Model the fold of this input.
Amino acid sequence: MSRFRHPSAGATWAASIVVFTVTAVAFLPALRAGFVNWDDDRNFLDNPAYRGLGLARLRWMWTTFHMGHYVPLTWMTHGLDYVLWGMDPRGYHLLNVLLHGATAVAVFFLARRLLALAFPDAEAPRVTLGAAVAALLFAIHPLRVESVAWVTERRDVLSGLFYALTLIAWLRSAEPGGTRRWYWTAVALFVAALLSKAVVMTMPAIILLLNVYPLRRVRSWREAFGAPGARMWGDVAPFALLSAGTAVLSLIALHPPAQLGVTGKVAVSAWSFAYYLGKTLVPTALSPLHEMPKPVDPLAPRFLVGYGVVILYTVAWLAARRRSPGVAAALAAWVLLLLPTLGVVQNGPQIVADRYTYHAAAALTILAGAALIAVARTFDTVARAAAGFVIAGLGMATWRQATVWQSPETLWARVLAIEPASAIAEVGLASALAAQGRDGEAVVHYQRAIAIDPTYAEAHNNLGVALTRIGNPGDAVPEFIRAIELKPDYAEAFSNWGNALVRLGDVPGAIGLYRRAVAADATYADAQVNWGNALVRLDSAAAAIPHYEAALAIRGDNPDARLNWGVALARLGRFPEAADQFRRALALNPGLAEARDYLARVEAMGAARPP
Done:
């Protein structure tokens, strides 16, 4: 086994600083981005459980499977976000960029070590250059934008950082003179990676591959299962056990939607493989969402292309296996790292996603760094110029792609520009418009979503809400009914139907629907608030108060529950208590004008105690 040669510390750290700086500059547009209504709302805007690092918050982080993921370390970084920045999205994006920059540096050190082993006779400066190019090709590729510019995908960059550090530590333990301290450091780092995102469970396979090349500990199956391979299997065992446990935990937590049949999974996996390879080489027409076709036809042209690409890739790997073991190892590593995301277990509405390339990308970029070292032996100037040109082009493309994530409007407009027939994007854009009070415009996009996919229950429900807000509750009712036909336990649709009936003057009928909403989902706090409001309309303020209490028991930071509880208390003449509820509502939402007006009224009456 070749011994790793350490280049000068000054050149190494200078290169790492360049890698970090270029990466950060390429992602500067992300620092101006906000939260988007694509999981950011459910993870952060509507989720008070992560906000802080107190014992209650930490207990939630280490026990939750929120949205099907067990990522306690990632949640802890978001708890730190809240401590540092509150709900200012710029701070969240800043930490994403810094973590990605750190991952780029870790990839640089990993690539330098692997390339030095692969090119034992190359000069150290050339190896350092190849590693820096590999790290930059990884870090500023437009396919990384989704993982970095989307706050929800912090788990990608954090787990990617720990993954690279795990491999560095493991390689240190495997080199001549390496110690067990480095080995157990690698195991600890791998645990941190798994606690950041389970997709890193591929680590045992990568360690086995590194034992074959570039470490060359085993050279054949006979050696692998004989005496030479004994230490290799012993080293892999802790990683394999941790990965197996994580895989089981993930399957329990994920609750994946209805799965495709075998032929459908094969078709989707082949197309995903072709997409990721093609977009790695030519990163154009990228989109935050590529919807799964309905139905999946395994003989459709795109899937036929996928089968062809898989066959050609396999032929290339077989050709390289004996002639170029380093190329074969890199090609195999890319496949192994992609496997968890190729559609074997379908999760979500997408057929492919740019973020799924985050962990696999370095396998191909390190191969590109190796190609630079090899070519530079003969064409040094040309090779350096070509590398610089490619990196500059990728950096500009990444800058442009990062602007897509500026806001919900820019996000969904981009999806519709690439895939005009996306019902999810139409609903996303409509919801963004509705959040700004532009309900009339939102109605148009909800209707377009329903025209694309008439079975989209959320589109019918949201259209009903928008129609109610613009003064057409009668037209809204059929939309809520259709949403419930499509999704019988749709608590939100029951509650919104009730709100429409209140507008139509049927308050008792609305109460019946709120009751059905609570029966469908006992954790739906808004239904309790609406139920209480309906009782107040019926002059039953005392009966309304338990519903506000129930809403706050579900979600303690609900300002609407506090506001309406205060209104009910005021109706009962309990003005000091009402004033206290209005103050609490304002503490939760200082911009709640109604709470401020009501508080002023009770204070003007001289009935409220001073704050």
Notes: The CA atoms of residues 357 and 580 lie 52 Å apart. Residues 421-520 form a domain with the Serine Threonine Protein Phosphatase 5, Tetratricopeptide repeat fold (CATH 1.25.40.10). The mean pLDDT is 93.
